[in-house]
Amino acid sequence: REQMDKLSGSLTLKKLKELEGFDIPVVVIDHKDSEIEEKAYINLGFSDIIDVPIRKKDLENILDKYIG
Fold it and tell me: pTM of the full predicted structure?
């Protein structure tokens, strides 16, 4: 557990994707400065990104997109 507390989001995602059968959308919450940064998160394997500060409508859209 102590080791997991020190992982960055991208390293945590990498370790999750190494788990057999892991197939859950992972949404990063961060302040994106540009579309380039958003594409970088997608290229790392994140399913989507929510910009901070989080707006209720954005959260509802993400939940609807991945949960339905």
Answer: 0.78
Mean pLDDT of 10-33: 91
Tokens in use for 29? 């919450």
Q: Answer yes or no: are the C-beta atoms of 45 and 23 closer than 8 Å.
A: no
Dihedral pair phi/psi, residue 47, rounded to 5°: -75, -35
Tokens of 23: 């197939």
C-beta atoms surrounding 41 within 10 Å: 20
In DSSP notation, the chain reads: -HHHHT--HHHHHHHHHTSTT-----EEEE---SHHHHHHHHHHT-SEEEESSPPHHHHHHHHHHHT-
Cα gap 43→68, rounded to integer Å: 24
Element holding 50 (H helix, E strand) = strand 48-51
